[in-house]
Write a structure and sequence with these properties.
Blueprint: H1 8-22, H2 25-39, H3 56-61, H4 63-81, H5 86-103, H6 109-126, H7 128-151
């Protein structure tokens, strides 16, 4: 059974789009975080070890930024692999959402910010079609994360 609101064809094209950017998971994950921290400096406050970094260059070189960029991309990759299985997809999204809501207390609007930056990067590197085919996936991810936050009382 296909998940949520994505057709079989949409799942396939989303995976194709994601593969292009996931090939360089660490570099692209880092680029996404650096752009987020630069354009939305308040997001840095959640990461104690990134707070003092002001230059994009410094962030790009940081092992912690690189490590977290890779982590974000790995998590999304797990979700993308399970777009056609609701149960497995939710099995990945739910604990992630709960952790960010309860332990890390990350404002859920930041998930939308990070997803939008991923879409921008896809468009810049691979064109509009790539971005369009991944847009529905980011909407699914953000919708499910927001639902988990609501359940946790946000």
């Amino acid at each position: 059974s296909s998940t949520m609101s994505l057709s079989e064809a949409e799942v396939q094209s989303a995976r194709g789009a994601w593969e292009k950017i996931y090939v360089d998971a660490e570099d692209n994950g880092t680029a996404v975080l650096v752009r987020m921290f630069t354009e939305h400096p308040d997001t840095k406050s959640y990461f104690t070890h990134f707070k003092g970094m002001d230059s994009a260059e410094e962030m790009k070189q940081s092992d912690q930024v690189r490590g977290h960029g890779k982590k974000v991309f790995s998590a999304i990759n797990d979700m993308v692999q399970h777009l056609d299985n609701s149960e497995a997809f939710l099995g990945i999204v739910t604990p992630l959402g709960k952790k960010h809501a309860t332990q890390l207390k990350i404002d859920p609007k930041n998930f939308r910010i990070i997803c939008d930056i991923i879409l921008q990067l896809m468009e810049e590197k691979f064109g509009g079609d790539c971005k369009t085919s991944f847009e529905k996936v980011t909407n699914e991810i953000c919708t499910h994360l927001n639902n988990i936050y609501k359940e946790e009382g946000w």
